[in-house]
Q: What sequence folds into this?
């Protein structure tokens, strides 16, 4: 059910993006599959880095800003700590995030690009002991090259999930492989 | 345009710097070792003064919440009946007279954690973190934000079975329980 809801919302965002592309015939959008590492920041109860995979849908808007709906899921890794009576283990926190980024500069273009971006999204943090869904904020930088229709990009970003009076934070480093699409509307 | 791009490059860095001032920090509290409830006792009480804990003192002023708590150790049941272990909390250093008094006036913090007759069971971090009660957690948070002194009670409950082995009541007696190498691990939300 949750996956269906996520796919629905991502589809809506992609359609909105496609509509904006349709208004600017020479513009393009893309689809990027990415994977990388998810690094917890200042989380004593969730210290180990995990893996993250997802999809991004960068869209040129015809302005200096690009928009990019995204979804990814990350698996937290079990950590070990010693409180004086031998090692104790704690399961990692799994993270599912979806939302949209806004970039300064186009994320879909031929050649090389550097683009800073910020974004907002819904984040579900899951452990066996409980699950919460909260708003989170992203920010980072993408380096990309696009040989032909392909896109290759390297991205570093910070995801900050607002959990009330505090936050849980992850750094994400990901490598993406994508395809540029020129729609024939 | 250049200024705008430069500002956008700096924005995530500034954002990261700002938000990095908060995080989750573990505070581990040594409990009496062992904690023992003999068959003629109904509970065990321990006054905890967090002000003797360096980690707590260094984060006390920045503490905004509790992210995770766990009671660790090994529970040993030397009696002939299965028991459930519970931990209760009262927000001061006073001690109640018996288990019924504790249940009436204190707040349940953790449990139940089942230990079979004549056996021992390790309380793991994952299992333990799932057993905390939200009301007790709130009381603990208020105490951590306040004077840092509270009383923890360990109670053991034994079910009384009828002729068909159906539970008909619970009592705080019969079996001897001990918790060895007990630790309370509190993961606080605070500033770095």
A:
């Amino acid at each position: 059910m949750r996956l269906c809801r996520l796919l629905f919302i991502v589809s809506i965002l992609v359609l909105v993006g496609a509509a904006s592309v349709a208004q600017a015939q020479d513009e393009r959008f893309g689809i990027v599959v990415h994977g990388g590492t998810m690094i917890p920041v200042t989380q004593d109860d969730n210290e180990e880095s995990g893996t993250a995979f997802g999809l991004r849908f960068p869209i040129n808007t015809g302005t200096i800003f690009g928009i990019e709906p995204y979804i990814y899921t990350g698996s937290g890794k079990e950590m070990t700590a010693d409180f004086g009576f031998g090692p104790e283990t704690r399961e990692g926190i799994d993270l599912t995030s979806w939302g949209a980024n806004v970039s300064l500069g186009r994320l879909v273009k031929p050649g090389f690009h550097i683009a800073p971006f910020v974004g907002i999204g819904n984040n579900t943090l899951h452990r066996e002991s409980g699950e919460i869904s909260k708003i989170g904020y992203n920010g980072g930088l993408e380096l990309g090259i696009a040989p032909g229709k392909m896109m290759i990009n390297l991205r570093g970003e910070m995801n900050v999930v607002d959990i009330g009076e505090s936050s849980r934070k992850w750094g994400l480093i990901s490598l993406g492989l994508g395809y540029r699409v020129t729609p024939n509307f | 345009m250049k200024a705008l791009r430069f500002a956008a490059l700096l924005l995530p860095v500034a954002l990261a710097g700002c938000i990095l001032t908060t995080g989750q920090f573990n505070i581990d509290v040594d409990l009496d070792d062992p904690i023992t409830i003999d068959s003629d006792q109904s509970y065990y009480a321990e006054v905890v003064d967090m002000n003797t804990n360096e980690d707590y003192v260094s984060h006390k002023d920045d503490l905004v919440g509790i992210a995770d708590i766990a009671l660790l150790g090994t529970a040993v049941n030397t009696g002939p009946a299965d028991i459930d272990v519970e931990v209760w909390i009262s927000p001061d250093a006073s001690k109640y007279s018996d288990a019924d008094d504790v249940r009436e006036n204190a707040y349940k913090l953790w449990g139940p954690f089942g230990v079979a007759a004549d056996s021992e069971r390790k309380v793991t971090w994952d299992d333990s973190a799932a057993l905390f009660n939200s009301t007790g957690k709130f009381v603990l948070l208020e105490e951590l934000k306040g004077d840092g002194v509270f009383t923890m009670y360990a109670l053991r409950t034994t079910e009384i079975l009828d002729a068909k082995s159906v539970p008909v009541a619970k009592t705080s007696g019969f079996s001897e329980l001990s918790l060895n190498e007990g630790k309370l691990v509190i993961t606080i939300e605070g500033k770095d």
